[in-house]
Amino acid sequence: MNGADWIVVGGGSAGCVVASRLANAADPQLGRIVLIEPPSTLAPPVDRERPANWLKLLGSSEDWNLGTSENAALAKRVLRWPRGRGLGGSSRINAMIWFPPTSSDLQNLIDASGNAWSLSELQQELENLTELVRPEQPTWQSESADRFLEAVSSSHHGTAWPYLRLNRSGRRWNPAELLTPALTNDRIEIQRATVNRLVHQGDRVIGVEIWNEYGTNQVLANKGVILCAGAIATPGILMRSGIGNREQLQQHNIDVRIESDQVGQGLQDHLIMPVVFQVKSKPFPSQPSVRDIARWQTMGTGPLTSNLAECGGLFLDDSVQLHVTPTHYLTYPTPTDHAFMTIGVNASQPLSAGILELQSKDPRVPLLIHPNYLGHGSDRETTIRGIRLARQLVTETSLSKWIVSEKLPGKKRHSDEDLGRAISRYTQTLYHPAGTLQFGASQSCVVSPGFAIRGLQQAWIVDASVLPGLTHGNPNATIMLLALQAAKKIIEQTT
Ligand SMILES: Cc1cc2nc3c(=O)[nH]c(=O)nc-3n(C[C@H](O)[C@H](O)[C@H](O)COP(=O)(O)OP(=O)(O)OC[C@H]3O[C@@H](n4cnc5c(N)ncnc54)[C@H](O)[C@@H]3O)c2cc1C
């Protein structure tokens, strides 16, 4: 449809929130929105609905199936990087954990805005978001989570809690649900296509170039375009629109519109090291029993409601996040006769940062992802401290009687060197890429605290790419908070 008022590119966590907020704003003069999300096919309903099946969504038709380049510090391993595809974006396939921004996450946002934002406005938006999302208390908890939470509460090492979930009555929920009222009253139209680049008239962005089964086309909008395609795809759209590093763009015969070395830099992710214990319990089911299916279907409870990463918290002065699963982190859901508990350890504020690299101006070719994991030595040291803490929690509390043995890194690995090698070999992405277009008050930032692309009119960005650094915990709540904040700022700028 041509002649929309707004185009929102990408119907993921941020895109759904920003589109629904614009569409549900009291002022009908704001007009109509076209939300553009690439076509996708659905994974089987059992995997889409049952929280415990979320690992099966990875690699499915709802996943972009991205991967990193070889990671030098991870024993040259290439990591698979799932990214959600379809309305709801990565919230469609994620672990559903609701981890609101900590007070220092909020302060980091305020600092990045150059104090243009206030704590009270962010707190108000977080309240608004929580009312919209209504994260749910878990309705069931594994023995691993019960015992871990009890152990932490009896120790002096920090606090842990059962994570709230993006669920409704024990079923997966994602922010695409927020679009329903606006779809019903015709304020939003969904168009299934992939966006290649922005369409300009001088400095004014008037639409986007898309492609789908009908070929290449343009979608135009009167009031502007909001990019929400995520931490990897949004920088790609900018580069193909001529915004980025001059040499890189020229190498691919792209005319330079705005020269910026910032686009695709600053890539960060949480890297998780599983500390796996065999425990005296029954294995967490990899195939549900008839009874468990009936419990889930009729009462929305039982092991099928588990999101696996059921509980956790921040430790060691918030430098480390621990997550607990009732499984062997690296082998589940392969059936096993043994029961396991994993304490996943990650540095909450890693200092390593990587880059994205344009491979081709063809939008079907994904950007190269170079995460530079552990590029900064302190990230490995922090992770080692986290492993030692997980061991301490197990040996110094009631967990000690329940544990059969430590399987990973394994009790033979004690020295920093041994643990460092285990980190290289076994760590995994926690699926939190961010920061590739960090917003900021400085003129060198492509995105302003008003979410506008500097040097253009009628173009904004909000998604994980604009985060000025990783959140201490899981980022989805903060990204959706940014989306509400962006909707507010965009409305202020345009009405
Ligand atoms: C497996 C997994 C588990 C996770 N678990 C958690 C968790 O438990 N808790 C938590 O807080 N966070 C979790 N995360 C992270 C969180 O889900 C993401 O950080 C968040 O969803 C990112 O939001 P976004 O809006 O930036 O991008 P996305 O939600 O990924 O949305 C981007 C959207 O843009 C679309 N798109 C891409 N390219 C184009 C294009 N060219 N044109 C148009 N549209 C395009 C995509 O299809 C997608 O719908 C997880 C992520 C994954 C992948």
Description:
- The chain is an alpha+beta fold and 495 residues long.
- It folds into two domains: 1-136 and 173-267 and 356-367 and 433-495, FAD/NAD(P)-binding domain (3-Layer(bba) Sandwich); 137-164 and 271-347 and 374-426, Cholesterol Oxidase, domain 2 (2-Layer Sandwich), CATH 3.30.410.
- The chain has 14 helices and 24 strands.
- The strands form seven sheets. Strands 1, 2, 10, 11, 12, 13 and 24 form a seven-stranded mixed β-sheet that branches. Strands 6, 16, 17, 18, 19, 22 and 23 form a seven-stranded antiparallel β-sheet that branches. It has a two-stranded antiparallel sheet with strand order 3-4.
- Helix 5 (119-133) crosses helix 14 (476-494) and helix 11 packs across helix 13 (416-426).
- It is globular.
- The mean pLDDT is 97.
- Flavin-adenine dinucleotide binds at residues 9-15, 36-38, 58, 82-85, 89-91, 93-97, 99, 194-195, 228-231, 233, 237, 431-432, 463-464, 474-477, 479.
Q: How many structural domains can be distinguished in the coordinates? A: 2
Q: Could you describe the largest sheet, including whether it forms a barrel?
A: 7 strands, mixed
CATH-defined architecture of the largest domain: 3-Layer(bba) Sandwich
What percent of residues adopt helix (DSSP H or I)? 25-40%
CATH third-tier fold name of the largest domain: FAD/NAD(P)-binding domain
Number of helices: 14
Low-confidence stretches at least 5 residues in length (pLDDT < 50)?
Answer: none
Mean pLDDT: 97
Would you state the CATH class of the largest domain?
Alpha Beta
Number of strands: 24
Percent of residues in beta strands: 15-25%
Question: Radius of gyration over alpha carbons?
Answer: 22 Å
State the end-to-end CA separation.
Answer: 23 Å
